[in-house]
User: What shape does this take?
Amino acid sequence: MGVAAAALDYDAELMLRVKDGDSASFGQLLDKHRGSVVHFLYRLVGEQAVAEELAQEVFLRVYRSRGSYEPTAKFTTWLFRIATHLALNWLRDWRHERNQERLDDGPVDSPYRRIYDREPSIEQQLVYQVNLDQVRRAVAALPEKQRVAVLMHKYEEMEYTQIAKVLGCSESAVKSLLFRAYETLRARLAHVERS
Amino acid sequence: MTCPIEKGKPELLAEFAAGELDMETASALEQHMAGCGVCRTRAAEHRAVWEVLDVWEAPPVSAEFDRRLYRRIEAEARPSWWERIVEPFRAMPLRQLVPLTATTCLLMVGVLLERPGLTVPATRHADTVRIDQVERTLDDMELLGELGDAQPAPRPHANVM
Amino acid sequence: MRIGLYLGLAIVWLGIAAAADSAPSTPPERPAGRQAQAAQNPIERWNEMSPEERERELAKLPPARARLIRQRLRLYNSLPPEEKQALTERYHAFSQLPPDKQDIVRQRLREFHQLPPDRRVTVNGEVRRFRSMPEAQRQEVLNSQEFRARFSPTEQQIIRDISTLVEAPKQ
Assistant: This one.
């Protein structure tokens, strides 16, 4: 992506202002992308606290790189490339720990679940919980690149070209990854009752 | 339109379910599916997957996220005691720096010989918490969390842990 | 003379360092509207430590215990914000109690946890009721035949101590 095209990317403009010492622009970028980065990482690593920790590292690296920043790609491409890299490293480093723990963040016997009584009905809650569990397991079972592609495509609504740049592959490779992933998910989830 | 499955392009059905086809292609596919039960079922399954993936909402970002991030940024920006001492001399030309450094080192040796107890204070992050403190707090939090004594909080949608 | 020279150069040296512009860059301004949480309990302070510092502390424990603590921290950190806020406030009030009162609360809460689920609901409801009563009325109920018939001695103690020592969450 040439510098001229980057002029249309408002995020890149903000980042160039950060490079020039405008710290308020960093706050704007954080406000705009904090949620999507954390949510993406949460679905990728499966744990909110870890996702926030990794997201902090993402924005730290963005801030550290401000001096040498060049808008050669869309800002979000760069952002999600850092996030993906950190998340996949974390998964590889901590996979042996995760295998010994439950996939869920909130087991049924958590001591904190008694703080509030919840709506809706118990049955609906169970259905929701089962569905959520199946979705999370199905996505977690996908090969890494397929999982990343699905999370970017489905939840961050990124286009094929951008996903391709984050993953460092061609657009047709991304389409193939996504198709295989959705076919796998179709086999596992198409029967799941929607509430 | 030729059957996408027979044509070896089943991904069209996934793209249709995701709403990614242009109007012309989507319309042609709809017409085909009206007469093709296999494609109709496949597209419906993809649609079902698309909807059930929506179940997976991400929790909100914690309120302390920004504060923790800025603290880390500030900690990195804060120079160490050594950098504060060296900074004034960075721009000094070598012909001045070398003899000054040598003189300073000799003087420091002299000072230390006079005052052998002089040591550099250890730096420690002011807010370090010991793991036993954390464990005790977790114990207490879990006990306090057992006591469900609030009225049910109003919630816009189901949000079971 | 020699000591005077040492002192003089040391003062000059430290004076240059103190006068130096120490900040190589200004940290970014925090955007308005993002409020920090009120209470800094040890777990919140733990969350603000660097990953390296946290790992150093966890490494002091046997692996199984460290793993358990990680799991418990994840549970706490994954609470919905309003629940975490309520719990944080309750903990803050608890931590302000004198140590002997804290021990009483811990003991009562452990006893509460031992109760069967249906008794927990009943006792919990009674705790809520007691909190809304003036002290005189509370004593009257505690001493009444009806109250003593409804609740075991252990349950009576739980109700009495928890309602007086553990604050209700702010509405």
In short: Residues 118-125, 149-161 of chain B have pLDDT under 50 and may be disordered. Residues 94-114 of chain B form the longest helix (21 residues). The radius of gyration of chain B is 34 Å. The CA atoms of residues 109 and 116 of chain B lie 10 Å apart.
